[in-house]
User: What shape does this take?
Amino acid sequence: MTSDFASTTVMAVPTSDFGSTAMAVPTSDFSSTAFLGRRGVLNPGYARLWSTFMTARAVFAAALLLLHGALRVVTHVTPWWVWWLSALYLVVAVLVRWFVKPRGRMRLPGWQWLVAVGVDIAFFAVLLVTQQGAINYTALFALPVLIAAVLGTRLLAMGSAALVTLLLFGFAVLTGVHPLAGSAPDLAQAGLMGAGLLALAWLTSVLSARLAHEEARGRMSRAEARLQALVNSMVIEGLSDGVLVVDSNCVVQAANPAANAMLGRAGEILPRTFGIDDDPAWFHLALLARRTLAEGSVEAIEVILRHADRQFSRLQVRTQRTPALGRLARPLCVMFMQDLREMEARLRTEKLAAMGRISAAVAHEIRNPLAAIRQANALLAEDLQQPMHQKLTDMVRQNAERLGHIVDDVLDAVRVEPSADGIQVHEDVALDTLAETICADWIAQHQTEGRVQCDWDAPAARVRFNAEHLRRVLINLLDNADRYASNRPGAIQVVSHAAEYGNATLLVWSDGPAMEPSVRRHLFEPFFSSESDSSGLGLFLCRELCQRHGAEIAYGRTRRLQGRGVVEGNEFCLVLQRVLPIDALPPDTPELS
Assistant: This one.
């Protein structure tokens, strides 16, 4: 008998480095008829049982055919019609084995019981009635009763055993000394045989149901365990902390994406399992794994990974050793890694965010005295005639305006919508003209004419953007590019482009080094910066201003021609809404808002 009793649905879910988890979901009632699902879907385990019994039945029919043939040839006692009847029984058994499949909600419905059990009872009854010599065919009735008990319901099994018992009693009565009463020994033999068949049917049915129930419970437990393993794997995959599982041979059995990124394996096509000592940069991790496996768990310790092709990583690592389950099992070392630079960046971001909220409140309070200073300075400038005094008032005015811009920047960082008295959002400006003027002023101020290369390819493009806001965005991007770019000619490139019927783009590219993944993830967040002297509001304000005007800003790592070669650098792309004249609209365009 097979142990595959419960009906299940198997679903394989890939979980990257933590393996593919097969989740089995039971779909049966776990009752005595647990071979079939609720909707009558056939269980593969029941189908295998059916095939096994039908195959055994066909083999048994072939054995009977050979037996009767041998008896006919040797003793000449068995008539030919018994051999032909055995041959017919073999043909029926083979046809049922290959062409009859169990179907329906209940096990062994009427017509299947007839071909699987009824034919056997009828054939064995004929052999019993017409038995020749000393051959006793009574024991053959155990086969159909067993088939009914295993493949059918308990009621069907007991009914089949009762039918065989009645046939035995009838045969005893007909062949007895007294035709109406039969022979006492024959009746006793029939009673014992019937009782044995009833007991066989009952016990087999009970054991079959119990096995089906236990197997269903076992499959349900395995399904729950696999589901729990799948959930654990999904949780580990989504962790920002790195998780490594290392065995006693220093082979990494599992690593989540965060761990691969910390090890410098992100985006690489490498074997699923690798050695913790394959890379010299992981030397300290290998030592920590060996120490954990030899001595036990290690509390948080700082580890520095010095990579050959990128900046070093500072990690906080703690380890745990799993127990060895079983005689052949070996303990594993589980490493939990945290990027200290990212942790510090998050703490710094939270502190700066809190400071930003305080700064916004302070900025509101500064505006009123600042307005009073401006007004007083303007009144004082009207009464002063000496050039030196006027120069001093100009300095006061310029610095007051500078303070006003700083206050506006801080307030812009926390303001979602523009103020009612702010600048009009949908201002129509010429992209190339305005961008060229801004770049020329910035170049003259920073004296970097040789480093900046401009390519204006949208002479007729007009975009929906406020001129002052576009100036602030472009100057901020140029300042960032100037901070990290080299001193070579063309180190900073500003390019404009406009599709015939599409949006306009403005690109600011520099040949600076690639950003760290931890910096890139928080690039446009407020109060986040990789520089200690920066407030971290520049790119955040750029994104906010772009969103107000329906534009988009994005960062990418691209290649551009610089001098005689192609150089990889950082590129910020502005996608601006273009204002198209009516005669420039594509055909069948109803209206452009």
Observations:
- Residues 428-584 form a domain with the Heat Shock Protein 90 fold (CATH 3.30.565.10).
- The two ends are 74 Å apart (CA to CA).
- The CA atoms of residues 455 and 495 lie 5 Å apart.
